[in-house]
């Protein structure tokens, strides 16, 4: 049997993945989705010897018939099941140690978890230095909006229609 520190680290990783993405999880059981994530994040799935399908099959094999989650013991068995497949050239014991090493102390990676995607299109559309025509006048050199002053057509409350040429001549005597 492996030393207790290894088992502790394995249990630690198991708990971290068990509660990942599930606010109600206790950390005592691992669902299929998180099991697959663990296998992917810890590089057990290598795309050649072990695929996502293999991982799903092993999960179904080790769990209780009616259960939808696996316990730590079942998780341990699942890793032992995958070990010879992942590390083909090694003996059963070596392969198990190697696969445990992959998982020990690991935690879920949050790669690609909803970050604000600021793509090139958004950059181009919001780059005020590239604005043309009347829109250009609405921003200063630094790209900060000028507000009301940036608009050409400010309303003048004189009482006359916009382009009226004889404004201010109404009460004037000729």
Explain how this protein is built:
This protein has 174 residues and is mainly α. The protein folds into two domains: 2-103, EF-hand (Recoverin, domain 1), CATH 1.10.238; 114-153, no CATH class. Helices cover 43% and strands 2% of the residues. The chain has helices at 4-19, 32-41, 52-62, 72-86, 92-103, 120-125, 133-136, and strands at residues 30-31, 69-70. It has a two-stranded antiparallel ribbon with strand order 1-2. Helix 4 (72-86) packs across helix 5. The chain starts with a helix and ends in a 38-residue tail after the last helix.
Summary tags:
single chain, 174 residues, mainly alpha, two-stranded antiparallel sheet, cytoplasm, cytoskeleton
Class by SSE composition: mainly alpha
How many domains, in number, for the residues?
Answer: 2
The whole-angstrom Rg is 33 Å
In the CATH hierarchy, the third-tier topology of the largest domain is known as Recoverin, domain 1
How many strands appear in the DSSP assignment?
Answer: 2
SS summary, helix count: 7
Give helix % range.
Answer: 40-55%
The CATH class name of the largest domain reads: Mainly Alpha
Strand arrangement in the largest pleated sheet:
1-2
Largest sheet: 2 strands, antiparallel
Question: H/E series, N to C?
Answer: HEHHEHHHH
Oligomeric category: single chain
The named CATH superfamily of the largest domain: EF-hand
Q: Mean pLDDT across all residues, rounded?
A: 80
GO cellular component, one term: microtubule
Protein name: Tubulin polymerization-promoting protein family member 3
GO molecular function: tubulin binding
Subcellular location: Cytoplasm, Cytoskeleton
